[in-house]
Amino acid sequence: QIWRRDLCSGARTPKQDGDPGAETPKHPLPQPPGFAAMTGKTAPPATDPAPAAPKNEPVPTPGEEPTPAPAAEEPPAPEHPPAVEQPTAPADEPAPVPTAEATPAPEEGPPAPPAEPQAPAPEPVPEKPKAEPPSSPLSLTVEEVSENSVTLTWKAPEQTGQSGLDGYVVEICKDGSTDWTAANEEPFLSTRYTIQDLGSGDKIHVRVKAVSASGASVPATLGQPVLIREILQLPRIRMPRHLRQTYVRHVGDAVNMMIPFQGKPKPEVIWTKGDQPLDTSRINIRNTEKDTIFYIREAQRSDSGKYELAVRINGAEDKATLDIRVIEPPGPPQNLKLVDVWGFNVALEWTPPLDNGNSEIKGYTVQKSDKKSGKWFTALERCTRTSCTISDLIIGNTYSFRVFAENACGLSEKAAVTSGVAHIKKTKTAYQPEKIPQRDMMEPPKFTQPLTDRTTTRGYSTHLFCCVRGFPQPKIIWMKNQMEIREDPKYIAMIEQGVCSLEIRKPNPFDGGIYTCKAVNPLGEASVDCKLDVKGKI
């Protein structure tokens, strides 16, 4: 009855000697067999915790006498009730073992008796604080995605720890899977990494960890999976400036043009002329990933026209038109005629050439030929009209005329020649020149600019100047102190356009005196003089 009262009331049993720190388990005591038959009551519900049987005590079976529990080695506290005898469990049923976790006391039922006093536990030895791992990498982004690779960039973590950063580890996981695999074998310090050898069309999740001696950081993960496919770059033609206008070449010249474009993946390049494919027997096309080359070895007139270039990627395209004009010299003018001849003049008329050489006619060149000499001379250039008048012809001569057409390529190879000739007739009027009265130009010498007195320094050359007129040209005589200066290397006399000069080279005081210039011709003579003073050096 005592065991049944305690079992029904949920009273706690004292702790056993072998487990001083154990507490009552959370699970209720298992119901012994025949419990309902003995008491006429049912066991309490499983939700309410019940006291567990002490450790190593048997549970009694129906029909057996309960065996007294062994006395505790330590005396209980004064307020602790005496130990209650517990029935022994049958030999074939193991006793429940209380768990190590502490369970709170049940909310309902009488309060549990206080636990037995425990021995004080030894104070634990303080452990050294472990180094913290680095923080997560920052700003993880996708820089570029190609057909089989993806390039990532990120920033270094804010905290790298005391031991410093060893590097980064990049891990990938396919979309729908949880298996993360490292993309790099060893940590690296760069904040940019390209993951290679990926399958086109795959979706992968990517994360990056910072690694140090104290461990790995919390990974930085991309928010969305990355689709491995090449990012398309819209096609665009970059037409060179000189090809935006009409591209002009001469017949027989080579045509070699390179037109760059952009687009990713490699665009499809299509050349057409008048919505028709090109003649590959004459035109060579070479395409690369960045440009297309248009080449003709020898251009012909038939190669002229508008060529269409289309660069296409999966329906997106860019178009450009290239205008090529192959020119050659024009044909000769037509229907050249002599319209009229009068005095020293001839009037001509003609019509434009049938073939302009695939270029606009810039003008016409008119040439004349004298019957006596037979040589052709240009009389008029770049005449823009189809008629002209040739003047200043010589009386009595007979002339023929021809006309060339001119375009951007040059003059026509052949010329239109007049069928008839133009004869400039002589007139009966005789030319009488005007009589001019003869004027007597004879004049005796006369000095228009006399000599002037001069003072010079010893050792410095000096010049004497005067001007004279007269016809016939007078003879000039230089004198010093009324003595004629003859061939003396110290003096140099010159006359030019009536200006007389005398150079005295490095004079000394003995070269001073009166110098006279005398002019003489058949009609008379004239003279002028001056004084030269030579001072010594100070």
TrEMBL record:
A Gene Ontology biological process term: cell adhesion
Biased composition (Pro residues): 46-81, 107-124
Gene3D superfamilies: Immunoglobulins (2.60.40.10)
Ranges for domain Fibronectin type-III: 136-231, 332-427
Highest taxon of source: Eukaryota
Pfam families: fn3 (PF00041), I-set (PF07679)
InterPro entries reported for this sequence: FN3_dom, FN3_sf, Ig-like_dom, Ig-like_dom_sf, Ig-like_fold, Ig_I-set, Ig_sub, Ig_sub2
Domain Ig-like per the UniProt entry, residue ranges: 445-529
Biased composition (Low complexity): 83-106
GO cellular component terms, A-Z: myosin filament
Keywords: Cell adhesion, Immunoglobulin domain, Muscle protein, Repeat, Thick filament
Residue numbers spanned by region Disordered: 1-144
Function of the protein: Binds to myosin; probably involved in interaction with thick myofilaments in the A-band.
Protein family per UniProt: Belongs to the immunoglobulin superfamily. MyBP family.
Protein name: Myosin-binding protein H
Source species: Calonectris borealis
Gene behind this protein: Mybph
